[in-house]
Every structure is written in structure tokens, then in C-alpha cells.
Amino acid sequence: MADRERLTTTAGAPVSSNQNSKTVGPRGPVLLEDFQLIEKLAHQNRERIPERVVHAKGWGAFGTLNVTEDVTKYSCAKVFRPGAKTDMLARFSTVAGEQGAADAERDVRGFALKFYTEEGNWDLVGNNTPVFFVGDPYKFPDFIHTQKRHPRTNLRSATAMWDFWSLCPESLHQVTILMSDRGIPTDPSRMNGYGSHTFSIWNDQGERFWVKFHFKTQQGHAHFVNEEAEKVIAKSRESYQEALYGMIEDGRFPKWTMYIQVMPEGEEVQFEEKTGWSAFDLTKVWPHGMYPLIKVGEMELNRNPENYFSDIEQSAFNPSNVVPGIGFSPDKMLQGRLFSYPDAHRYRIGTHYDALPVNKPKSPVHHYHRDGEMPFGLRTNPDAYYEPNSFGGPVEDPSVEEPPHRYAGQVGRYDFRGETDHYSQPRALFEMFDAGQRERLCANIAGAMQGVPQFIVDRQLAHFDKVHADYGAGVRKAIEVQTRDDAEASLSTSHSAAAE
Ligand code: NDP
């Protein structure tokens, strides 16, 4: 006891026993006055917070962003000053699985970064893919419903997925990436990360540039085929946690090179005229041939969380957390996420989620929000609790105002997707695949389509045909092979059952 801290109640009083509840006699009933027992049980009941509706299962670590190049002609953000080193947090995740889901599943991976800059937190909340399934937030809840459980069977539904995808050809690009070799990274360090959306940055002269963020793995790409992933999952559902935690504990710090693609404001008009794609469409990339990658620096993860729950489960990333020199774009999905992410955190964690240690900026925070659930550290000047005031409270700084957007137009519900070419970019990707990659892509799709009604399969095959004749033909062949294999397997099962 001499060198150990004393166990206390949450109110700080020493506890005499943590072994036996207080009863009437050794066999008697438990007394209500055993407030410490009640406190313990009540706390246990409140140990879980609502899991994220998407990206529930995650793994994360702290690290540093080192800026090695000079990109100040594009952005005045202090985080991009040459030589700047910024503390950061990364959280990787799967999208569809619940918290107990296996790590090595075929799914898109979240790639969320929080940079604790000297001018507030900058969060880049992206994925390991440069595009997404849908380009309008109106479709997002419906899309996610297709990835989650069927209301009646409580099972994942391949029919729902392919029904939705085949009715939304804008998803074809992301579906092709998901079903390709890169659909199951071996661990979080072996994949790229992308901001995915188009954001904007501006320089000291007030010139704005549209921007895409890229983080390329320095560990090299490594991925599982389905059979390998099945073996991994059979042994451990926590393979990503084990890998990421283990490599950082061993001092093998994973690194990514950070790049940007930059498009001067105004050029999006020519880009769309030339390519037919909106520069703000999350289902499309900017080809590197048109907008080459510009190196910014390097990100390294080098510290494991002390407490998973408070550092990773309660970490709250918001695309709306930007800092002077970094801003938004008209990307519709980004605009939707600017609302939905902070809203999710207020619901999951509480009004003052930004005051929790992991989310708290390292730069000073001064605002006039008051009270509410657990307002940690809101100790402002007591007389300056409204604004404007004459008592020395914090004031706005017009020098950090962003340059005006040139975007203006008529309000409406525009369907740009109907007129957009959704096939060329998946074709460019398909053409990069060698014979083996194509074969695995088609086999993965055939496997994922099992049990899907024929009219949905046919509708999706028509999309693959439009991407590339070999893509549609490859999936048809893979379906045939699979149907034959399934028939043979069920025949041999019935033969052996008969023999018994
Ligand atoms: P590029 O030839 O310049 O390649 C673009 C990127 O494709 C590279 O950064 C590379 O990432 C990635 N890539 C290479 N092999 C694969 C693969 N098997 N699966 C997924 N990605 C791969 O082409 P474009 O810029 O003209 O784009 C062509 C297609 O590449 C796009 O339609 C898109 O599907 C895909 N792509 C494009 C990206 C972009 O921002 N332009 C980003 C990622 C993919 P790495 O160097 O890490 O291998």
C-alpha cells in the first residue's frame, strides 16, 4: 500500500473495500447505502457511447506532419510553412462493419487526420480511395442503408448493394476500386490516403486554388485476396489493431508522403468543358496527367494512444475544421459532411466534444458558447460573456477572412450526374490492371453478387460492358465459373450425405 495510490470514489474520498459489497450479515441482502457499489454498476451501464453509424470500427495513432517543400505560393496556412512540424492524430476505419466487425474485410477504409496547428485544428477526413460511391449527400443515407443490415433478416444484403449500385452508375468507379486488389489492404500502413473531396487553399495575395490532398504510403501497397483475408479473419478479427499498434510499439513508424494537386480558381470551367467532369464531383479524380502531384512533406505515426476509448473512440473529426489558408469548395458531398460530422459528434459525445483532450486544439480557444453538458474549461472573463462587450472579451480578426468565392448561380436541384460520363475513369483504372488483377476483380464481383436477382445482375453487367468489353465479359465468365463450382460443390455434398 505504501507506494500505491489510494483508491477513491469519483468524488475523491478514500475507499475502504473494493472486494465485498455491504450486506446484512455474511449471507444477507445488499444495502442501498453501499453507494460505491451502486456508483460502480451505474458507471458500467454508461461505458458505451453510441457507435458511429459509419466508420464504427477504427484504429489510430498520434504522429507528426513535417513540411519539407515550399507550397506557400498556393496557401498561406501556417501548417504548410516550409519546415513546419505539426502534431497530429490519424484514425483509420472500415465503413460498414460495426465495432466488433473483423478488420480484414473488403471495404473502403476511412483515413481521418487531425492536425493540431498553431491556428486551430485542421481535420482532413478522407478515405483510402480518391473517389466515393455517390456525389450528392441526398443519396448518402440511402447508400449507407444498403451497406448495413436488412431490416427483417438483420443480415447484410448483396441484393440491396447491387440494386443501389446498378441504379446509380456514378458508383461504378468506387465499386471497381473496392472489388479490385486494393479492396482489402493488409493493414492501415499499406494503403494510400486521400482527402477525396476538392477543397480550396489560398495564398497571401488572396488567390484561391482548388486542391486535392494525397498521402502515399511509403511502406508500399500490400493487399489480401479474399482467401487470404478469410484465413486472417479466422485467426483474428483484430488484425489491423495488432499490426498498427505492434509496429509503433516496435519503433517501426509508418510514413506517408503528402502531395497536393492544385487547380487555379476559374480553371474548373475549362476542366469541365474539356473532360465533361465537374472538378467538384466526388465520384471523379483529377487525372495526374492534367494536374500532377506536388510534394508537400511527410506524415509519420510514432505514438500509440494511452487509452483507446478517450483517444480514438472519442476522437471527433470534422471536415468543417479548417484553418486560415484552407477552405471548402462547392463539392456537394463536402457541403453535406460539413453539417453531418459535427452533428454526429454532438449526438455521440456531447455538446462540448471539442473540449475533450484528444479533440482540444493546442492553440488557445476563446469563444462565447456557454454552459450545456460538461462544459470543461469554459473559464472566460466573467464579465465578457456576450459579444460585443466593453470588458476585454475576445474579438474577431478580419485579417483571416478568406477571399470571396466566385461561385454564384441560380438555386435549384440540379442533376449533373445524369449528363456525366461515369465510364471513362473506371476504364482508365481497368486498363491499368494486368490479367491477374482483372481476373481477381471479376471473381470478387461474381462472389459479391451471389444470390442477387438476375435483373439486377443484368443491369450492373450493362454498366461493366460500357466501361470495357473485357470487364463485362470477365464478370459474366466469373459468374459462370462460380455457378458451376457451386453446383459441383452441392452435388458432392449430397453424394457424401447419401453415402453416410
Ligand atoms: P495515373 O496513371 O497517373 O495513376 C493514378 C494513380 O493510380 C496512381 O497514383 C496510382 O497510385 C494509382 N494506381 C495504380 N495502380 C492502381 C491500382 N491497381 N488500383 C488503384 N489505383 C492504382 O492515372 P490517372 O491520374 O489518369 O488516373 C487513372 C485512374 O487511376 C483513375 O481513373 C482512377 O481510377 C485511378 N486513380 C487516380 C488517382 C488520381 O488522383 N488521379 C488516384 C488514385 C487512383 P500509387 O502510385 O499509389 O500506386
Automatic annotation (TrEMBL):
Class of this enzyme: oxidoreductase
UniProt cross-references to InterPro entries, sorted A to Z: Catalase, Catalase_3, Catalase_clade1/3, Catalase_core, Catalase_haem_BS, Catalase_immune_responsive, Catalase_sf
Entry EC no(s): 1.11.1.6
Ranges annotated as spanning the membrane: none
Catalytic activity: 2 H2O2 = O2 + 2 H2O
GO MF term list: catalase activity; heme binding; metal ion binding
Predominant location: periplasm
Xref: SUPFAM superfamilies: Heme-dependent catalase-like
One Gene Ontology cellular component annotation held by this UniProt entry: periplasmic space
Protein's cellular compartments: Periplasm
Region (Disordered): 1-27
UniProt binding sites for heme: Y341
Cofactor requirements of the protein: heme
Catalytic center residues: H55, N127
Biological process according to GO: hydrogen peroxide catabolic process; response to hydrogen peroxide
Main function: Decomposes hydrogen peroxide into water and oxygen; serves to protect cells from the toxic effects of hydrogen peroxide.
Similarity-based family: Belongs to the catalase family.
PANTHER family reported in the protein's UniProt record: CATALASE
Name recorded for this polypeptide: catalase
Organism: Aurantimonas manganoxydans (strain ATCC BAA-1229 / DSM 21871 / SI85-9A1)
